[in-house]
Known about the structure:
The structure holds three protein chains of three kinds. Chain A is 67% helix and 3% strand. Chain A contains eleven helices and two strands. A six-stranded mixed sheet of chain B has the order 6-7-8-3-9-10, sandwiched between helices.
Amino acid sequence: xxxxxxxxxxxxxxxxxxxxxxxxxxxxxxxxxxxxxxxxxxxxxxxxxxxxxxxxxxxxxxxxxxxxxxxxxxxxxxxxxxxxxxxxxxxxxxxxxxxxxxxxxxxxxxxxxxxxxxxxxxxxxxxxxxxxxxxxxxxxxxxxxxxxxxxxxxxxxxxxxxxxxxxxxxxxxxxxxxxxxxxxxxxxxxxxxxxxxxxxxxxxxxxxxxxxxxxxxxxxxxxxxxxxxxxxxxxxxxxxxxxxxxxxxxxxxxxxxxxxxxxxxxx
Amino acid sequence: xxxxxxxxxxxxxxxxxxxxxxxxxxxxxxxxxxxxxxxxxxxxxxxxxxxxxxxxxxxxxxxxxxxxxxxxxxxxxxxxxxxxxxxxxxxxxxxxxxxxxxxxxxxxxxxxxxxxxxxxxxxxxxxxxxxxxxxxxxxxxxxxxxxxxxxxxxxxxxxxxxxxxxxxxxxxxxxxxxxxxxxxxxxxxxxxxxxxxxxxxxxxxxxxxxxxxxxxxxxxxxxxxxxxxxxxxxxxxxxxxxxxxxxxxxxxxxxxxxxxxxxxxxxxxxxxxxxxxxxxxxx
Amino acid sequence: xxxxxxxxxxxxxxxxxxxxxxxxxxxxxxxxxxxxxxxxxxxxxxxxxxxxxxxxxxxxxxxxxxxxxxxxxxxxxxxxxxxxxxxxxxxxxxxxxxxxxxxxxxxxxxxxxxxxxxxxxxxxxxxxxxxxxxxxxxxxxxxxxxxxxxxxxxxxxxxxxxxxxxxxxxxxxxxxxxxxxxxxxxxxxxxxxxxxxxxxxxxxxxxxxxxxxxxxxxxxxxxxxxxxxxxxxxxxxxxxxxxxxxxxxxxxxxxxxxxxxxxxxxxxxxxx
Lengths: 267, 283, 272
């Protein structure tokens, strides 16, 4: 049972990208995002795409897995492009009340390609790091913010539990749908209101089950002496190695170069 | 109900494909009381989901009263005749009152008012719960055992002629189990065919008149209980128990007792063993 | 030693008060293997939760090694001493990798990373799950999940283990795995076991059986003594091992059989 929620599911191979400290990967995705937003020419975007292909080769992850994440965004991309196309400056062709604009087409294409590059780039984070690594990394990165009352431990714990229960709840949903179908429920009505209502017999039991599980889980956690993040240690500690630091610095430099290049007056 | 050469494959054509059922041939007649047993992962739950059309076979066919499922009879019609009760069915309750929950399937069928009410009352009676006492209560205020009976009533209200249950007694205590079996025995004597998936061989021994053993997606045995348990070492080999009563008989036979057996229920085994022991003492 | 002194426990508010336990007194010595048998709603689960301070008694006192469970400064120490395995295998595993989950307890106790690693490896070895340390729990069988839960409790180095109907959602194979593991923990590692169940065959394996009914202790003794009176147990909503039922049937048919028989093998021996 798989959820279409994840941008890219972990792809288990050994590669230098997989071995990188997950905190470095998260930070680099952030830097890359900023750099790509700074890019305003097509040459810059081409360079960014080339960088992604480079990462794909080094990480040994087939690039089509990363590109798959774009599919849910196709409508959004088309819509963005069309809005830019019709609302840009210097109308070129007039179709009744609509104007098609050349600068609009250009900026629509820029925004669209930028979005695709960002999504594909970010997919490599989840394709090369396990959910557990990501949770640890987020907890560690947020830790300094505890002083300003960011609940770093709680956020990480919620992610851990969510990851643990997604497959369980997916299986449970499947079972409830089948059980209700067995006593006459139908879910295929074309009327959206009827269709939404027909899911009540699934949603009510599902929510009740989630609450019951949450209760029992809380009890089990208490029984194992859980009392929040205070005084708690971890079995695994993330360790930043020389190679991780070096990668962070050099990749940041490359992304800065990308931003600079992307703002040159090129095509 | 008839299954002919049914094979079922999960995720066919993908690297994750695996065959859950292989060439299943099975005929279930009116009034049968069948136990379907097999180790975990042997395909039991895949098989029962075929019986009411939740799954359709990759190859082979099913027919109900001579009509082909999916051709002459739709899965939706089939579900009215064949009630399927999943494991822990109480987890599917959702309405405010017991009566509303039991009537859910009937209202979906388009039945109304008095017809629904009388069928709900009847269904509660069939599971042994008093209408006046339970109908207007919230299902969530009941004990686990009562909730399970209500969930079963929700299927019985559709008046199925054939009831399929997956592990109906799991997690219940002695009283809860007894209530379920009372209900099943009553239904069966009213002519409802029953097929029950179970792990408890002692339960099988008390009520089933036919046992189907499934292993690795194939039917390996299909016979009367007293004959099935003669294959004790084979059953143990695939990870199944044999009932204590049958075990007693086979162990005594090894010791030279001559014991006739026509059922493996506790009562009849006690009678046969007592007779054999007395005979031996008399000699 | 675990001690219940005149313990009562009430659920709900004043208007809808339910007495789950009524004036229970019970002492469990170190090293014992005690089965607690009772119908659903007999108060078994409440009793379990009183031992490690998940619930506090309404009246009376529960103490572990002389320390009262309502002593808020000692409750973490008590939870380290009293490990607990619950009924639903799915709802007590926190992490999506087996070894991460086993580490959860010692992490909460604030152990050093190397110490946690050592405890996790040892606990997984004891329950025979070391090969599956990197698995995602949702890919495991029910019996394997419960063994992970046992390992999670063991990693806290407890003196007592409480099993709250830990076998009731398992198939016979899973049940056997858990019962065998539990008996080994008691005999080889000296852990005191409190095994709550409604399955008579499991209770029969204990050194001592306590039968709860309607919130009171109805019987307390060796399995042979407790299961001798089949009718009294039926009135308490509790079954007896099938072999005992067969033995009693034969007895009523006029065959002379002692009423202490609990297994088929004993019954065969008595008849031959």
